[in-house]
Predict the structure.
Amino acid sequence: MHDIIINEKILSKNMEIAAENRERLKNKGIFTINLISSPGSGKTALVEKTVEALKDEIKVAVIEGDIQGDLDTQRLMKFGIPVRQINTGRSCHLDAHMIRHTLPGLFDQGEIDFLIIENVGNMVCPAEYDLGEDLKVSVMSVTEGDDKPLKYPAMFHASNYLLINKVDLHPYTNFDLERAKANALKMNPELKIFETSCTEGTGIEKWIDEMRGKLADKPKD
Amino acid sequence: MSIAVNIIDILKGEMEKHDAARLKGVKLKIGELTAIEPESLRFCFEALTEGTNMEGAALTIEEISLKGKCLTCNTTFKLDRYFTTLCPRCGGKPGNLISGRELDIESMEIE
């Protein structure tokens, strides 16, 4: 009986594939975001708003992640952009392997500048699984608790952006916006926070402008 | 579950590499921030290794605490789960996380 030192990251396989995805996307000049949140935060509505605003300026594509069904894909197809659905079956998160398999089908649908990956609704596991994206964007809504960042530190810690959504409902809840932002910044002082409402359009243009800026910064191949 | 699957895949490869007949134990390092519940992981590991040459292996999980670096004076110090701890040396806020996000296989015991 003897000990063997391994010292390997448990998710090393996922990290390897994510790095390959990242390289592939970079080589095609595609700017990619990974949208993560709990179910019901309004992720899909935000994707719709983003696609609607940008589709005539740049080539947007979406990868939809759900356990089953293609309801979200149906919503996005009306914009006439490339959309691919990933049904994970049991897995509560997308992983790099799933993205690797989906990219060829997506590339077949035409040239892409901006890829939005909408992850499975889950505030825990998606934070651990790199997909090969440029940025991780978390979404939380005012109908959830303002203590969410304290309860799900990994997600907020791993993200570059936080969208606090459904702010139109703020007057009807006990949600403390300033406390939510402070909690999120505690988890991650670098987090860039936006307040949005898809129903009323609040903050959407500011968010779109931020994405426009990121797209402009992205080196073209 | 997928974490357990990943662990087992890595161990399978390592066992083959070292010509191992049985897995007797495995040591993991799991950071506090990863929200991995040790008992759930243990349960999944046991379920997945039943009937294999890994069955009955002892799973040792070392929990790695959250440590950050002071943004002001660079001192490394332990953080509470809510990131409210201030630098014990100068009272500054923590910035970069030094540890607490690990999800590693440290070693295995084979025969």
